[in-house]
Amino acid sequence: MLAITGGKGGTGKTTTTLALARALAATGTAVTCVDADWDLPDLGALAGGPRRCSAAADTGPPHEATFTAPDADGVEILPAPADPMARDPERRLRAVAGGVDRETVVLCPAGTAPDAVAPLRVATAAILVTEPCAASLRDAARTAAMARAVGTRVAGAVVTNARFVPDGVEAVLGCQVLACVPYADSPLDSETTAAAYRDVATAVRRPDEKIHH
Fold first, then answer.
1. Parallel/antiparallel/unpaired status of strands 67-68 and 75-78
2. Nearest C-alpha neighbor of 58 from the set 25, 32, 92
C-alpha cells in the first residue's frame, strides 16, 4: 500500500491518487484506490462514483464495495464508509491490503484529521504531496517525520501547482521530488499533468523500488 499524504488539506492528494492510478493502469498495473479521509471524503466523487459506500456495503468485505473508475480500466475505487463514526480506518486498510493480489498497487489518500496516521501505519511507503509554499512544506515535513516514526519509508514527493521546484525542497522533506505538477483548471484532463504523473508512476514501478501492498 502506498499512502498519498502531506498533512495540509487542498494540496492535491486525491487528484494525485487518481492521476497516478491512471498512469499506473496505462502500464497494465492493477490499482485499487482507498479513501482514508473519512471526515471529508471526495475520492469516490472525483472518480465518478459515490463519496461513501452504502450502509449495507460497510458490513461486507471491502472489495465488495468497490467500483471501477469509468475512465480508467484497471482502477478500482473504494469510497469512504457510510458511517464515518464507525472509526477503524487501520483495520479497513489492512483488510484491503490483505484482500488484493500482490501485483495490485494500493493507493490511499490520507486525510488531515488525527486518524491520518492510520494509512502510514499500514502502508509500505508514502508519497508526500505539497505545494511550494512554506506552510504546505512545513506540514509535509511533519508528515514525513511521522511516517518515518512508524517505520514507513518516504518514497518521494510531488510538488503541485508549481512551474518549478524551489531550491531546498528535497532537503526540507528529506526525499527526492518525483514530479513537479503545474496548475491546471481540470488537472485530471490535462496532458501536462498526466505527463508529470507518468514520471511518478515510473519511479513507483522501478524494479529496485517496487511498491505493492
1. antiparallel
2. 92
Convert the pLDDT of each residue in 143-182 to its tens digit.
Answer: 999 999 999 999 999 999 999 999 999 999 999 999 999 9
Domain 124-205, classified CATH 3.40.50.970, yes or no: no
User: In the chain, where are the structural domains located?
Assistant: 29-111, 124-205
Task: Calculate mean pLDDT across residues 64-90.
Answer: 86
CA separation (Å) from 182 to 159, 163, 192? 9, 5, 8
Q: How many CA atoms lie within 13 A of 28 on its CB side?
A: 0
Amino acid identity, residue 212?
H
**Residue 129 corresponds to which cell in the numbers above?**
504531496
Could you tell me the three cell numbers for 183?
Answer: 496548475
Cα-atom radius of gyration of the chain, to the nearest Å? 16
When mean pLDDT is compared across 101-105, 110-114, 171-175, 200-204, the lowest value belongs to 110-114
| 3-state SS assignment for residue 136 | helix
d(CA 199, CA 185): 21
**Which helix (H) or strand (E) element contains residue 203?**
helix 191-204
C-alpha distances out from residue 184 to 70, 140, 147, Å: 21, 22, 29
Of 121, 111, 28, 36, which Cα lies nearest the Cα of 77? 36
Q: How far is CA 4 from CA 57, 78, 83, 124, 150, in A?
A: 24, 15, 23, 11, 15
- In this structure, what DSSP letter does residue 175 have? S
If one counts every other C-beta atom within 10 angstroms of the C-beta of residue 182, the result is 16
